[in-house]
């Protein structure tokens, strides 16, 4: 194959072992792949996927390929690529991949262009960079697009903004909205993998430290609970009164971020918004504060403002930049402000990505079958897909549940009987 751009093809064998290890924890996706191999629901469909190139994504790519898709895969984040997986997908599965861990912005957008040169009929995004680039710079390709899918909260927010502006030119399924995605991937996956990334990057003990979680959505809920489980004293900051109230009821301290900034040892943003950790917060942080992000884009921490406040910057550990301020205080930024769970760790565990990527595969199949009757807007994953994934996951875990009797079904669908 000549249509690829990766770091080192010699790493392919290690990548295959990593993909096979992840597959052991992805039984739902494996069962979908077995059906796809027989039915070929994506036969001949050109797909361009802009996702984190990890072992788990490798198994999704294999599933789409098994369904007959003509697939190109590019990275959705410059620091999240597992280079050995990229090499294996090319060598062992003949899937074109454009992804290099640590690639600069120019390379990142060149890879996005390669995905669009494939002239996709279905887009698969994690953050909506592929869709936004398509709409801004390659509008000539829009008439052939059947639809797309979107993996993450940030991307869904962007796509809904496009739809509200009537700028979205094809239907997109918001995979992130599936209950089998955000209940599990965002809460358990982000919670565990973010702590993993912070600990790998710093090797600093969390127990007894003050850990500030900025944002209490599903990712923030998971992160706060995992930090508490490691013995940290957790503070939550929020702008939504309902989420703030929930955090209080869950047993966390809640306060404005300007107050939390004065006492926090660790900070992690999970909001999907810009500059939630800003200049005024850096100005009052402790010496040695550790600041990270687990939201999709590296905009949640205002690093340009920190650079202006600093007299020096140096890399003190892999993925740890130390900024020294004029008064001598030092603030540490992890992973260049990018997704720390993928920058210094390996992302979500395979068992939760099993459900997320099952949603991706089945949503792609749904889009191919139903695109002609869908409007140019963002759709939730159909409930029957969500329930089927939950059923398959329980089956793979050896868990059985009850079913309603005919009498119970009749009662639930009637109104005559009362007290």
TrEMBL record:
- Gene Ontology CC terms: cytosol
Localisation: Cytoplasm
A Pfam family this chain is assigned to: AdoHcyase_NAD
Domain of life the protein comes from = Bacteria
Please give the pathway this protein is involved in. Amino-acid biosynthesis; L-homocysteine biosynthesis; L-homocysteine from S-adenosyl-L-homocysteine: step 1/1
- InterPro entries (UniProt xref): Adenosylhomocyst_ase-like_sf (IPR042172), Adenosylhomocysteinase-like (IPR000043), Ado_hCys_hydrolase_NAD-bd (IPR015878), NAD(P)-bd_dom_sf (IPR036291), S-Ado-L-homoCys_hydrolase_CS (IPR020082)
State where substrate binds. 54, 126, 151, 181, 185
Q: What does the record note about the cofactor?
A: Binds 1 NAD(+) per subunit.
This chain's protein is named Adenosylhomocysteinase
Q: Record the organism.
A: Leptolinea tardivitalis
Quote the gene name from the UniProt entry: ahcY
């Amino acid at each position: 194959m000549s249509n690829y751009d990766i770091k080192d093809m010699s790493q392919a064998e290690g990548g295959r072992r990593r993909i096979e290890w992840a597959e052991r924890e992805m039984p739902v996706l494996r069962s979908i792949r077995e059906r796809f191999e027989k039915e070929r629901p994506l036969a001949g469909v050109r797909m361009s996927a802009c996702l984190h190139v990890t072992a788990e994504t490798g198994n999704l790519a294999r599933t789409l390929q098994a369904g007959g898709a003509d697939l190109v895969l590019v990275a959705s984040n410059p620091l999240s690529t597992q280079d050995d997986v990229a090499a294996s997908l090319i060598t062992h599965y003949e899937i074109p991949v454009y992804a290099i861990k640590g690639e600069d912005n120019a390379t990142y957008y060149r890879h996005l262009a390669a995905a669009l040169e494939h002239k996709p009929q279905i887009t698969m995004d994690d953050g909506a960079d592929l869709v936004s680039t398509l709409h801004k710079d390659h509008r000539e390709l829009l008439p052939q697009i059947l639809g797309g899918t979107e993996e993450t909260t940030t991307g869904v927010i962007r796509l809904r903004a496009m739809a509200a502006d009537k700028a979205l030119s094809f239907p997109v399924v918001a995979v992130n909205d599936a209950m089998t995605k955000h209940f599990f991937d965002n809460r358990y996956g982000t919670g565990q993998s973010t702590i993993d990334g912070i600990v790998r990057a710093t090797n600093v003990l969390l127990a007894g430290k003050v850990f500030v979680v900025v944002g209490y959505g599903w990712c923030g809920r998971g992160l706060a609970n995992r930090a508490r489980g490691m013995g940290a004293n957790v503070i939550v900051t929020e702008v939504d009164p309902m989420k703030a109230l929930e955090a209080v009821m869950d047993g966390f301290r809640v306060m404005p971020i300007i107050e939390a900034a004065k006492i926090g040892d660790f900070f992690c943003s999970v909001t999907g918004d810009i500059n939630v950790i800003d200049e005024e917060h850096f100005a009052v942080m402790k010496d040695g504060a550790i600041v990270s992000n687990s939201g999709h884009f590296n905009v949640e921490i205002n690093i340009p403002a920190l650079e202006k406040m600093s007299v020096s910057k140096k890399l003190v550990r892999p993925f740890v930049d130390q900024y020294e301020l004029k008064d001598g205080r030092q603030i540490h930024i992890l992973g260049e402000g990018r997704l720390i769970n993928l920058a210094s760790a390996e992302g979500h565990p395979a068992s939760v990505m099993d459900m997320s990527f099952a949603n991706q595969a089945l949503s792609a199949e749904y889009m191919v079958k139903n695109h002609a009757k869908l409007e140019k807007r963002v759709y939730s994953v159909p409930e029957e897909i969500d329930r089927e994934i939950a059923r398959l996951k329980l089956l793979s875990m050896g868990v059985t549940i009850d079913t309603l009797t005919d009498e119970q079904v009749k009662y639930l669908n009637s109104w005559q009987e009362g007290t």
